[in-house]
Design goal:
Elements: H1 2-9, E1 11-12, E2 15-16, H2 17-51, H3 56-84, H4 93-128, H5 135-162, H6 167-176, H7 178-184, H8 186-201, E3 209-211, E4 216-222, E5 226-231, E6 236-240, H9 241-244, E7 250-251, E8 258-266, H10 272-288, E9 292-304, E10 309-317, H11 322-342
Length: 367
């Protein structure tokens, strides 16, 4: 008691030393509680979530863990400030601390909501990967970004209101200037509607190989304003969604099978019988190859070209994957080469024949 009375008699900055001692004790207790309570909270949450089948409680508790830690620290600081209780006329610490605490609680709540949105986005993205449709794969990140933008906008308004600014005046000014803002942001608004149309119509999904008159590449991301396309030169093209929604898009990966259309030219010294054998052999190659779709194929001797007899090939590969498609083409081309070699037929190439006549044999000689 004597020590406590002594502390009450001493003062630092017009504050009794006993209040400084209490504030220090509360801070030490707060740090200890923050450290051990969060560890205990972590073990308890794992014990609770392990008993449930749904992962949603894991997401909720994981999102709350770090904000809760900072909330405990803030409450301890506030208790220490009130225990210190400096004179308001010389040092208005309590009023400043109360205002800062309100702003901190709002910020921590927003942080918790942000982490919760990230957790749900990860969860539903994983669920979307197991569904047949690709719409949810694009819709989940789109909704996540929309919620985050709305959260930031709401947080800004709430913080402004707690800092003493008039929100009603701000909203009224937004109504007055709404038309001007809409005119200035018409391109952004059209891009947002374009992204919505892309998600609804689904002309492509993320990872698809698409082709337009202006670019060709693989879709990496569909955002609010633009869609990112990775070209085969490894450059990144950002196309505004308002423009992309009005483009004619050729979705290469949407093909159920991939077409091969080609011609083979052989020399003019080929006999009709050899030509029939060549056509029949190529038909047999296509019929027995496992990579060729058997619903439709054509092998026809269809044209007398300037320098060759032309055989027309038209068939489809079962796989639309670029590497597998090229592998099938290569195997068939090699078999065709081997077949023509066995038939002793030669590939033709552009050439000209020059005929020379001995004029002396056909004209008289004058002596």
């Amino acid at each position: 008691m004597e020590i406590w009375q002594t502390l009450q008699q001493w003062s630092i900055l017009d504050i009794p030393a006993s209040r400084w001692f209490l504030a220090f004790i509360f801070l030490v207790i707060t740090l200890a509680v923050q450290r051990y309570l969060i560890k205990g909270f972590h073990h308890i949450t794992h014990a609770i979530t392990a008993r449930t089948e749904t992962p949603l409680d894991d997401l909720l508790l994981t999102a709350a863990e770090k904000p809760a830690s900072w909330l405990i620290l803030m409450l301890g600081v506030m208790v220490s400030m009130h225990a210190l209780n400096p004179p308001s006329e010389t040092f208005p610490l309590i009023d400043i601390a109360d205002k800062a605490a309100r702003l901190a609680v709002i910020a921590l709540g927003s942080w918790f909501t942000w982490r919760l949105i990230d957790g749900f986005s990860t969860y539903f993205s994983a669920r979307a990967a197991y569904t047949d449709t690709a719409l949810d794969d694009q819709l989940v990140p789109f909704i996540s970004k929309t919620l985050k933008i709305f959260l930031v906008f709401t947080l800004t308004l709430v913080l402004a209101q707690n800092m003493g600014y008039s929100i009603s005046g701000l909203i009224a000014s937004l109504g007055i200037g709404g038309l001007a803002v809409a005119m200035a942001a018409k391109d952004s608004i059209s891009n947002i509607f374009g992204s919505i149309m892309i998600l609804v119509d689904r002309p492509f999904t993320i990872g698809d190989w698409i082709k337009t008159k202006e670019f060709e590449g693989v879709v990496e991301e569909v955002g609010f304003r633009s869609t990112r396309i990775r070209t085969f030169a490894k450059t990144l093209v950002n196309v505004p969604n308002s423009q992309l929604a009005n483009m004619v898009i050729d979705n290469i990966d949407a093909m159920p099978k991939r077409r091969v259309k080609m011609r083979i030219g052989i020399t003019y010294d080929t006999t009709p019988e050899k030509m029939r054998q060549a056509v029949a052999s190529i038909e047999k190659i296509l019929k027995h190859h496992v990579g060729v779709d058997q619903d439709f194929s054509l092998v026809k001797f269809d044209a007398f070209e300037d320098s060759s007899l032309s055989i027309f090939l038209y068939y489809f590969t079962k796989s639309t994957h670029w590497n597998e498609y090229l592998q099938v083409r290569q195997e068939i081309n090699l078999e065709i080469m081997q077949t023509l070699e066995n038939l002793k037929l030669e590939f033709a190439f552009p050439s000209r024949s020059l005929y020379l006549h001995d004029m002396d044999k056909h004209a008289g000689t004058t002596k």
